[in-house]
C-alpha cells in the first residue's frame, strides 16, 4: 500500500535523479515531487514539479500541504544525492505509525572529504525552539498534522516555512528521533564549529532572522509562553555596596591571555569606584602567578581561589557574586577577551540607570589573537528589541557580550554550575521579569583563536551543548507558561 508522498528540491540533474531513484525503490512511495524555482528546467520522467523559490518558503509548504494526499509526507531538504539505508523508509513509516508522532527524524551518515562519519542528532523537546535545530535532512511528517500546521503559515515567508511547520506540528503531535542511522548524504558545510556559531548574527542573514523571529513569536503565543513587554521595575537603592561595579573573570589556565584581560580592566576610566574579581579555578600553567603579581600591585584586584574544586564557570560566578567585595553591578569579562577601550565599564553602569534594567548586554567585535577584526565583524544582537527581545531569546543561541547584572537580582538566581550555557540560562531567567538593557556600539573585543573552548568541537560535544541549551529553553518555556497561568 502506497502511503508516502515525497518532496525534494531540485539540485543537479544527476544527483536529483539518484535521489528520486532511491526513493522510488520503496513500495511505500506513491509519488515524488520536485520543488523547482520558477522557470527552472528540471524534467525527470515520472516526477511532478512544484514551483517555489525555496523548499523552505511558506509558499512551498502550503503547496506541499495541498498536494499531499497520502498518510505521510517525506521532505528531503538537501540537493545532494540521498542514499537510504536498508528498509529505512519502512522504518520511518513503522515508527511514525506505531507512535502516531507528528514528525519523525533520525541519525544519519555524512560523507565529508570522501570519508563517511556518523552524525547522531539530539532528541527534540518542548524548548527546542532554535531555528538551526539539526533534524538531518529527512523529515517524515504525519500528513494530517502537516496540513493543520500549514494552515497557520504565512505564504509570504521566504525562509521560515519549514521552521514554522515543525513548530506547528510540535503542538499537534510528538516530534520523535529514531536513534538509528537510516540514510547517507553529502555534508555541504565543512567548516569547524567555531566558524559556524555566529551565522545567525551575521548581518547578511538578517532577513532570515526577522522571519524566524516572527514564526517563533507566533508559536509562543499559541503555546501560552509569550510575554508581553511589561517589566518589574528595578530599585537600585535597595542595598548598600562598598563599590559601584565589579568586573568578574572566571579563569583556568589562560596564561597567554589573562594579563591582557587584567590590563584591560585596570585601565578603565570611571566616575565611580570599581574593582576586579578574578576567580582562579586552580590554574596550573602560570596563570595564578600572573594574577597574584597584579593583585599585589593594585588593591582593586581581588584574587579568589575557591575552596571547592568542583566548580565550572557558572560556579565561579556564584563565588564572585556572593563575595562581600562584589559591587552593585557585576560585569563579565572572559579570560581571553578584552574591553574595547577604557570607557566600557562606565558605559555599562550608565546603561543600567538610563534604562532601569536588571541586566545589560553590550556589543562586541570579533578579532583574532592579534586583535585584528575578523568576519563577521561587529555582533550587535539587534534582534533583541525592547518589546520582543525576551521572547526571541528562546530561539537564538546567545545574548551577546559583555553581560552585566544588577547584583541583588543576580544573587537571587543561582548560576548553573556548568562550563557552557550558564550565561544564557541566567539571561533567560532574568528576562522573564526584568528588562534587559542594550548597548549597540562595540564595547568588547571577542578574541577567536585555536584555544577557544568552542573552536573545533566534535559532533558529540556539540550535541551535548545543544541538548543542554534546549533543556534550559524547556525549563524557561515551562516557567513562562506557568507564570502566564498564574501558577508560579
Describe this structure in words.
By secondary structure, the chain is of the alpha/beta class. The chain has 2 domains: 4-190, Spore Coat Polysaccharide Biosynthesis Protein SpsA, Chain A (Alpha-Beta Complex), CATH 3.90.550.10; 245-485, Spore Coat Polysaccharide Biosynthesis Protein SpsA, Chain A, CATH 3.90.550.10. Helices cover 34% and strands 23% of the residues. It contains 15 helices and 18 strands. It has helices at 13-24, 58-67, 88-99, 143-150, 161-172, 193-196, 206-223, 258-266, 287-297, 313-322, 344-355, 389-392, 407-412, 422-431, 459-485, and strands at 4-9, 29-36, 48-51, 72-76, 83-84, 103-112, 115-119, 138-142, 175-186, 245-251, 274-280, 301-304, 329-332, 338-339, 359-367, 373-379, 403-406, 436-447. The strands form 2 sheets. Strands 1, 2, 3, 4, 5, 6, 7, 8 and 9 form a 9-stranded mixed beta sheet that branches. Strands 10, 11, 12, 13, 14, 15, 16, 17 and 18 form a 9-stranded mixed beta sheet that branches. Helix 4 crosses helix 5 (161-172) and helix 5 packs parallel to helix 7 (206-223). The longest helix is centred in the last third of the chain and has 27 residues, at 459-485. The mean pLDDT is 94.
Amino acid at each position: 500500500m502506497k502511503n508516502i508522498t515525497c518532496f525534494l528540491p531540485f539540485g543537479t540533474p544527476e544527483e536529483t535523479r539518484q535521489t528520486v531513484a532511491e526513493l522510488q525503490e520503496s513500495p511505500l512511495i506513491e509519488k515524488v515531487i520536485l520543488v523547482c524555482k520558477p522557470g527552472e528546467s528540471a524534467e525527470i520522467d515520472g516526477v511532478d514539479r512544484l514551483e517555489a523559490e525555496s523548499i523552505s518558503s511558506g509558499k512551498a509548504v502550503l503547496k506541499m500541504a495541498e498536494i499531499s494526499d497520502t498518510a505521510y509526507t517525506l521532505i528531503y531538504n538537501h540537493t545532494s544525492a540521498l542514499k537510504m539505508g536498508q528498509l529505512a523508509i519502512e522504518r520511518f513509516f513503522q515508527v511514525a505509525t506505531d507512535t502516531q508522532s507528528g514528525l519523525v527524524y533520525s541519525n544519519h551518515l555524512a560523507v565529508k572529504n570522501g570519508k563517511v562519519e556518523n552524525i547522531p542528532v539530539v532528541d527534540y523537546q518542548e524548548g527546542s525552539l532554535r531555528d538551526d535545530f539539526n533534524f538531518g535532512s529527512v523529515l517524515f511528517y504525519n500528513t494530517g498534522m502537516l496540513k493543520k500546521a500549514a494552515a497557520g503559515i504565512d505564504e509570504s515567508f521566504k525562509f521560515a516555512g519549514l521552521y514554522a511547520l515543525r513548530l506547528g506540528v510540535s503542538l499537534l503531535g510528538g516530534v520523535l528521533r529514531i536513534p538509528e542511522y537510516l540514510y547517507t548524504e553529502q555534508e555541504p558545510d565543512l567548516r569547524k564549529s567555531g566558524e559556524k556559531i555566529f551565522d545567525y548574527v551575521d548581518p547578511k542573514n538578517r532577513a532570515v532572522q526577522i522571519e524566524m523571529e516572527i514564526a517563533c513569536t507566533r508559536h509562543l503565543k499559541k503555546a501560552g509562553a509569550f510575554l508581553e513587554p511589561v517589566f518589574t521595575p528595578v530599585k537600585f537603592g535597595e542595598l548598600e555596596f562598598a563599590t559601584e561595579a565589579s568586573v568578574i573573570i572566571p579563569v583556568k589556565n589562560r596564561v597567554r591571555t589573562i594579563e591582557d584581560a587584567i590590563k584591560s580592566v585596570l585601565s578603565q576610566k570611571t566616575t565611580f569606584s570599581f574593582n576586579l574579581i578574578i576567580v582562579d579555578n586552580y590554574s596550573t600553567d602560570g596563570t595564578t602567578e600572573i594574577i597574584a603579581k597584579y593583585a599585589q600591585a593594585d588593591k582593586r584586584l581581588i584574587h579568589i581561589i575557591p575552596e571547592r574544586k568542583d566548580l565550572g564557570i557558572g560556579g565561579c560566578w556564584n563565588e564572585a557574586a556572593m563575595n562581600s567585595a562584589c559591587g552593585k553591578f557585576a560585569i563579565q569579562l572572559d579570560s581571553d577577551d578584552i574591553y574595547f577601550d577604557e570607557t566600557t565599564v562606565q558605559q555599562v553602569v550608565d546603561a543600567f540607570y538610563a534604562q532601569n534594567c536588571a541586566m545589560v548586554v553590550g556589543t562586541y567585535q570579533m578579532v583574532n589573537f592579534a586583535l585584528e577584526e575578523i568576519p563577521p565583524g561587529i555582533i550587535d544582537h539587534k534582534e533583541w528589541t525592547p518589546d520582543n527581545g525576551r521572547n526571541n531569546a528562546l530561539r537564538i543561541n546567545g545574548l551577546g557580550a559583555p553581560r552585566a547584572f544588577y547584583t541583588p537580582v543576580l544573587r537571587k538566581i543561582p548560576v548553573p554550575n556548568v562550563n557552557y550555557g550558564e550565561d544564557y540560562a541566567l539571561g533567560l531567567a532574568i528576562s522573564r521579569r526584568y528588562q534587559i538593557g542594550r548597548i549597540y556600539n562595540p564595547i568588547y573585543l571577542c578574541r577567536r583563536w585555536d584555544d577557544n573552548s568552542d573552536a573545533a568541537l566534535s559532533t558529540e560535544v556539540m550535541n551535548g551543548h545543544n541538548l543542554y541549551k534546549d533543556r534550559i529553553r524547556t525549563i524557561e518555556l515551562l516557567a513562562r507558561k506557568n507564570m502566564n497561568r498564574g501558577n508560579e
